[in-house]
Amino acid sequence: MARDCIFCRIIAGEAPADVVYRDDAVIAFKDIMPRAPVHILVVPLEHIASVNDLAEKHAQTVWRMFRVAQVVAEKQGIKSTGYRLVVNNGPDSGQVVFHLHMHLLGGAPLGPFGAYRRI
Amino acid sequence: MARDCIFCRIIAGEAPADVVYRDDAVIAFKDIMPRAPVHILVVPLEHIASVNDLAEKHAQTVWRMFRVAQVVAEKQGIKSTGYRLVVNNGPDSGQVVFHLHMHLLGGAPLGPFGAYRRI
Asked: Alpha-carbon distance B108 to B119, whole Å?
């Protein structure tokens, strides 16, 4: 656990979150600034800063994040209507919390996902 | 291989693409309608329609997609400046090709990634 990491504090029960799923590898909770009607963060319990820090030993953790995304999408009723998975890594992406997380977004038609201006 | 799938046709060498990486599990090529200065699609060779169709047997494939994203991000010079990984699934997400793929976007500050309107 990283003491200064808000997601580690949520995982440890030291900070509040609207948790929708948890198992022995992954937690999922609502984003506090939702960008879609359904906006949930899928987060490994292990503190991994970003995609750049993933290694072979995390293969199963990465898969479990996708599996949890499937489960949560179904529970939220957006399995068929559709959803977007987003993982931001580093400055240009807008990553704010440096504990790996996957955004699960849905519940309405989603917009662009690239640069501000079409190139 | 799915005969009517454009990504399967690219993988089979029957359709053109600007391929930047290929191994025994994953191919990566430039998006023909780039939404950022760097916009590459990371695609499993196996025809899997979408996230909804992923199962435990695909765990290693999912990991390999992330590993290739790391490699390609480094080759493209955006490992440190940052990048976004996006996987769209179904209607609300705007998924167009129903062969699983991960967008790798970077090379400029990226914009919003949720619904059209902030909710």
From this structure: 26
**Full-model pTM:** 0.97
> Please, which pLDDT band fits residue B116 given cuts at 50, 70 and 90?
confident
In a domain, B119, yes or no: no
Which three-class secondary structure state does DSSP give residue B3? coil
Total number of domains in chain A: 1
Report the residue from B66, B81, B95 with minimal CB separation from A90. Answer: B81
**Is B117 a domain residue?**
no
Here the CATH number for the domain that contains residue B51 is 3.30.428.10
Domain holding A10, by residue range, is 6-106
What value of ipTM does the predicted structure carry? Answer: 0.97
pLDDT, mean over chain B: 96
Q: Which residues of A touch B81 (CB under 8 A)?
A: 90-92
Residue B2 clears pLDDT 90, i.e. is over it: no
**Beta pairing partners, A102:** A42
Tokens describing residue B110: 């990226």
Segment A90-105 mean pLDDT? 97
